[in-house]
Amino acid sequence: PITGDQILRVGPVNPAVAAILADEFQATVLPGAEERNAWLEEHGTRIRVAVCSGKIGVDSDLMKQLPNLEAIVNFGVGYDATDFGQADQRGILLSNTPDVLTDCVADTAMGLYLDTLRGLSAAERFVRAGTWASGQNFPLATRATGRKVGILGLGRIGQAIADRLEGFKTEIHYHSRSQKEGAAYQYHASAKELAEAVDVLIVAAAGGPDSANLVDASVLAALGENGFIINIARGSVIDEAALVTALQQKTIAGAGLDVFAREPHVPSQLLELDNVVLLPHLGSGTVETRADMTSLTIENLRSYLKDRALITPIS
Ligand code: 8YV
Fold first, then answer.
1. Fewest CB within a 10 Å sphere: which of 19, 50, 105, 112?
2. What pTM did the predictor assign?
3. Which domain holds residue 34?
4. In this predicted structure, what is the pLDDT of residue 315?
5. What is the 225 CA–ligand 1 centroid distance (Å)?
6. CATH, residue 169
7. Binding site membership of 79 for ligand 1 (Cβ less than 6 Å)
8. Is the dihedral of CA 178, 181, 182, 186 positive or negative?
9. Ligand 1 centroid to residue 54 C-alpha, Å
């Protein structure tokens, strides 16, 4: 059997997961940066299972220091903080928490879509600041219904966003690693072609090396001065410096962002802009969904300990 001293918690995982790991599994907690290397030298070889989050995963260095690692259980659908390439090569299994958070993340995308085009957060600030009471009118916004919307990454979350957008009478386009059979939306061969064709680009692609800076300055230029961008995926998918420049120079109309390149850092220039909606990576952040993510994470761990098989492995 695998015992608690062979199970390693990496990083500050969800509090409910942390409590179960401690109480039920007597799991080991990876020490902080200062003691980490000395600890790993002494104990790294005994670790067989790691539990981590999508924010702080089992990165390349850490994985090398765990030579007998067999499985990684990741809280979150995104696992870009873990070195999947090395895991794959070494035959280390990896699970994530798909499906259970799809609806909440898609809801967040719709919130950002409406907020960004209609200026709701800026309008709320306008009321609270007393500007409305002083007799001024809030500037007119942009219509959200009937737009052309491009989804970058038509996976589970991208599809759930598309389902919601249909209620807004939108014309839906997409670009994905591959064209989806049976998808009723117009496919574009590149992110740039997609951006050229739409009013709003919604980023729903998985993070990691394959999608890094997929939205670069040329894609933003293709989106154009009346175009908006929404990102609920990973900050790494957009060239953040290029995005800041485009927003400052108004070569795009606005952005709604739940994710950033170096969270929790938000580029200070964005804090000054009223055409940008900024959220603290809350896409899956509801009581219900986090409870479901916790259950699925623990079920994966239990299943590995019992049968050496994960329930929702990355294939
Ligand atoms: C999580 C997420 O909050 O699932 C993901 O990929 O980004 C979020 O749902 C985060 O990863 C948890 O660490």
1. 19
2. 0.97
3. 4-98+288-307
4. 73
5. 31
6. 3.40.50.720
7. no
8. positive
9. 5
Residues 248 and 106 in one domain: yes
Q: Which atom of ligand 1 is nearest to the CA of 56?
A: 13
Q: What is the ipTM of this complex?
A: 0.96
Q: Closest residue (by CA) to atom 8 of ligand 1?
A: 76
Q: Is the CB of 77 under 6 A from ligand 1?
A: yes
Do both 35 and 150 map to the same domain?
no
Segment 241-284, tens digit of pLDDT: 999 999 999 999 999 999 999 999 999 999 999 999 999 999 99
Known active-site residue 234 = yes
Model confidence over 276-294: pLDDT tens digits? 999 999 999 999 999 999 9
Task: Give the separation between CA 122 and CA 57, rounded to whole angstroms.
Answer: 35
Q: Are 231 and 205 in contact (CB under 8 A)?
A: no
Beta carbons within 10 angstroms of residue 243's beta carbon = 26
